[in-house]
Amino acid sequence: MKILSKLGNETLMQREKTAFLCSRKTPDGLEYLVGKWMLGLSQERDCVMCGNQSPMERAVFTTLLLRRIPTILCLAEAMPSRWGDDVRTALGDGRLLIVTHCDASVHGVTARSAFDRNVLMMSLAQKIVVGSCTKGGKLERALAGFDNVEYLDNGQPWLKRDETAKSEPAKEKPEPNRLGRWSRALRLKTGTIYLDFNDSGAETYFKITHSVGVAGGVYSMEKLFFDRKELTGFLEAIRLLDGQVRSGKPDPQGLVVPSLSGDITFDMDAGGSASLLTVTQRKEYGGGKLRVQAVRLLAAELPGLVNGVEEALEEWKE
Question: Is the pTM here over 0.70, yes or no?
C-alpha cells in the first residue's frame, strides 16, 4: 500500500506526524475531549494527518484549517478535481498536503479503501490519537498491532488493556447486539478460544480471541476479525481441512481466505491427529509494517472450531 497521488506541500511528510481517527458513533462529551486536545496543538510544532469521513474527522479537519495547523488530508478515494475555498487557501499557503492511495477508478469511499487509508495513516504517523473507537468495528480492527496510540475517550478501558495480563482475563461479556449475547468458549490443549459478535454502528463483526498461557502466570491474546462473508469463507476452509485431517491427508498449502483485516492462511505441522494447525491473519500496513495474529489448535480439536463457527453463522442471519 502506497500513496499514488499528492497535492500541496510535500515537505509536510518529512515532519513528525500525528494521525487523528474517530469512529462515526461517538459518546456524549467527546467534542470537549477532542477540542481540549486540539487546543494543545501549535502551528510551529505539530502536523496532523486526518481523513474527512466520520463527522468528528470532518470537524477536526475544518478546525485544523481554521487554526492554520499544518495538515495532511488522507483520502479514501481518487483525488477530486475541485476543492472549497478553505482548502484552496490552505494549499496556497503551503500548510496542507492532500494524499490518496486510490487510483482514478475509485470514485467513492468503500469499506476497503477506508480501512486501507486508516492503516496507511497509522503506518506513516509517529503518534496516533483516537477520538473514539467502536468496539468490534473497522477502526478497532485497523488499530490492532499498533502501540503508539492515545485514546481521548477514557470510557474505553477495554482498549487500554495490555495484550498480556498477570492472570487469564474473565471471558469478555459481549455488549448487547442484534444477535443477543451469543458467545462460545472452546477449551483447548493450546489455551482457550473465545468466539464473539460485536456491533459497529449498523454493522456486525465476528471476533476469534485466542488466550494462551505463556510463562509465570502470564497470558497472551491474539485476535482474528471477520465480517459475515469472510466468516463464511473461513468456515468453508476449516471444513475442508477437517475433512483432510479425517482422511489422514491434511494439506493447507494454497488455502487462503481473503479478509479486510488481513488474509487468512493455514499451516499444519505433521503428526497425525496430534498435528498443530496454525491459522494466521496477516495485514500489511505499508512501510514494511505488518499485523500478524495467529490462532493455534491441534488438528483433532478442529471439529470444535468448525461447530462453533457453524453455530455462529446460523445465528448470524442476513
Answer: no
